[in-house]
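Translate structure to sequence.
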């Protein structure tokens, strides 16, 4: 292919005979949709574990589908509004955005962000992997991992444009690009160093060091168009769509299951609106005041007190006095209220997305207008403050964290047992071979590092229920001999 954006890592060996007549980016989308990696996300937690909710709530698959829907709507509008700027920056193809949105969460492990934090800690501290674990980097690894002994292809062989659009954080944890963006002042969003660990690299990153060559190839067509550390336009659209979906659709879930209480949210928002010049953030309204101050510290390029106050009032009126005014009871009327809230907010935010030629360092080439940016911050605040900080959720998540830690230990013990070499799960053996082939000969502790990465890849590829079932079996508590083996 002549278009460098449409080039693949390994030619077109996986493209069906009739596919080349259509957009290569649409082919990418179809590959992602038909992959087992996307199907797995139906069993992975978004915010609330589906098994404990008693109602239908979002999982990583339905979240990804909504991000793809929102992202495509944004891309179509921006491409039509300013095709010259889009072309100058490298393109804003709706098919690319949709494909990237579908793929952006492929690497998320069991139990959502909790699983991500636990696996990162275990990868760095127990398994000796400097790159640790990061869900975005794991997604990129899934779509680009290519060969085991030069034969079996397990990646998706996507085009440069789609791979670049998946890179929400287009840097590795420690070294790429050089100079690394964590040393910028201010650093790009997500690039700041790991707290209390000056040698830990960036907190968020888009690829492991083993995929640096793939990152360079994917980003090559955008060289000179966007900065080395900056998202492509299509990645920026996907990122904005992810923010919008999280801010709106996850609120649906917590309303459905009754954990988002009108009184608590109303008390915080209304108390802040009555604040004077006092500075005590321990009183009612203090949490949202802390958010206002944090936005000024981190995002002074867009933070505005008037827009912040307007956003608090709008969320109070439409969420507190609107959606939360009556509990969700499963009726058609309740469903209609949820659907109307989601549709109205989605339309409002999608229509407010802009493309910018010279963005701030902590922004992308695609961003929400000032007013809607503040509204998203308030919506996310409600979710973080009144759901994610709940002690009952913490109790549940601590148990899930212990389960993942025990699972990693059990697999490491199995993998290092010389008497069990021939009885290891085939998938785990394949992953060890792949990880070892990625490391140059003579790499210190090559075998141990390969085993560690293979265990992380294996655990990250499980659903919530598979992780629970596998740990049950490895603990000797399960009696379902043959069905347990299906997890492997």
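Result:
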């Amino acid at each position: 292919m002549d278009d460098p954006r449409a080039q693949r890592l390994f030619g077109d060996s996986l493209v069906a005979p009739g596919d080349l007549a259509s957009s290569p980016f649409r082919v990418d989308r179809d590959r992602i949709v038909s992959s087992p990696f996307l199907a797995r996300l139906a069993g992975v937690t978004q915010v609330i574990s589906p098994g404990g909710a008693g109602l239908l709530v979002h999982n990583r698959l339905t979240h990804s589908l909504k991000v793809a829907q929102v992202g495509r709507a944004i891309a179509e509008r921006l491409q039509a509004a300013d095709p010259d700027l889009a072309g100058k920056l490298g393109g804003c193809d709706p098919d690319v955005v949709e494909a990237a949105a579908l793929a952006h969460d492929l690497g998320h492990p069991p139990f959502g962000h909790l699983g991500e934090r636990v696996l990162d800690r275990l990868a760095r501290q127990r398994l000796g992997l400097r790159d640790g674990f990061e869900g975005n980097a794991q997604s990129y690894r899934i779509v680009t991992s290519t060969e085991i002994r030069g034969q079996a292809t397990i990646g998706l062989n996507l085009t440069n444009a789609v791979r670049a659009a998946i890179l929400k954080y287009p840097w590795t944890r420690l070294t790429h690009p050089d100079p690394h963006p964590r040393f910028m002042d201010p650093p790009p969003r997500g690039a700041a160093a790991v707290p209390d660990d000056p040698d830990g690299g960036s907190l968020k990153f888009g690829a492991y060091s083993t995929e640096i060559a793939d990152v360079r190839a994917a980003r090559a067509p955008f060289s000179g168009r966007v900065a080395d550390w900056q998202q492509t336009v299509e990645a920026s659209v996907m990122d904005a769509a992810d923010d919008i979906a999280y801010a709106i659709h996850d609120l649906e879930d917590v309303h459905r299951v009754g954990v988002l209480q009108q009184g608590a949210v109303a008390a915080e928002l209304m108390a802040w609106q009555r604040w004077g010049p006092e500075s005590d953030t321990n009183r009612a309204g203090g949490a949202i005041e802390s958010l206002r101050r944090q936005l000024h510290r981190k995002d002074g390029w867009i933070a505005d007190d008037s827009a912040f106050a307007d956003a608090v009032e709008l969320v109070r009126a439409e969420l507190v006095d609107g959606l939360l005014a009556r509990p969700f009871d499963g009726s058609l009327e309740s469903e209609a209220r949820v659907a109307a809230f989601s549709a109205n907010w989605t339309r409002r935010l999608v229509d407010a997305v802009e493309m910018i030629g010279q963005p701030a360092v902590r922004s992308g080439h695609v961003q929400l207008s000032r007013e809607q940016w503040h509204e998203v911050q308030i919506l996310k605040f409600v979710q973080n403050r009144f759901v994610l900080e709940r002690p009952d959720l913490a109790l549940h998540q601590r148990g899930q964290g212990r389960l993942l830690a025990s699972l990693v230990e059990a697999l490491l013990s199995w993998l290092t047992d010389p008497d069990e070499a021939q009885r290891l799960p085939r998938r785990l053996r394949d992953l060890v071979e792949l990880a070892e082939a990625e490391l140059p000969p003579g790499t210190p502790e090559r075998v141990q590092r390969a085993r560690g990465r293979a265990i992380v890849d294996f655990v990250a590829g499980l659903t919530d229920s598979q992780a629970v079932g596998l740990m049950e079996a490895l603990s000797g508590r399960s009696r379902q001999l043959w069905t347990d083996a299906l997890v492997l």
